[in-house]
Amino acid sequence: MGRIAAAVDDAIPSELAHTWDEFVAxxxxxxxxxxxFDIDGGVSAYQLSFRSQVSSDPRRWTSATHERATxxxxxxxxxxxxxxxxxxxxxxxVRCPRGYLVGELPLPPRPDRLIVELPTNLVPDAKVCDxxxxxxxxxxxxxxxxxSNQPAQRRLLPLADFVKIDVRDLDVEGVPVVRVAxxxxxxxxxxxxxRRDQLALARDLGFSLFQGNLLGRATTxxxxxxxxxxx
Length: 231
Prior knowledge:
Elements: H1 2-11, H2 14-26, E1 30-38, E2 43-50, H3 63-78, H4 83-87, E3 91-95, H5 98-101, E4 114-117, H6 126-137, E5 141-144, H7 151-156, E6 162-166, H8 170-181, E7 187-191, H9 196-204, E8 209-210, E9 219-222
């Protein structure tokens, strides 16, 4: 699968990729921000993701597109001043493709603030696992999203500080999945909280953090006015 994705990326004309990068770079520096709440309803962290004026379906992005989008988010966040206006003193979760996990692409040296969220389709080969172990040794926290007790996810479970579970599925297979997810004492995050009954069930099952539209929708933050700074 990785070789196929790489071949698709290589097939993209360099002029088209350059145009995409120029368009994003010349437009407003936008990021999407969604709050992650604690058990008492306070904001514990923020999830940041890509926003731009580019009209594109992320489901059709290549691995290279995901890497460029992540680079945009990281630069908009950590390479510009006034981080406090974006996230206060809270942690910031950003989904990072494989290249960032294995050291092929640089992460900002901010393990004090950045939570590295893994891709949902990540293949946990030896290089990936070794890379995640190294990131944790550097002080980064790691988040495993959309946990549903799949074999690949179980291999990553010992390397995760946070595990996200879709609360919309808790009423079907909630208890067994939650039991496995907490095997290594990771903090459980209930994601896609849309209804109060889902929130109540997640609390009953011992979740510590919660994310979803019921609690707070993602908003777009414009970082254009924040001056660029070095890391």
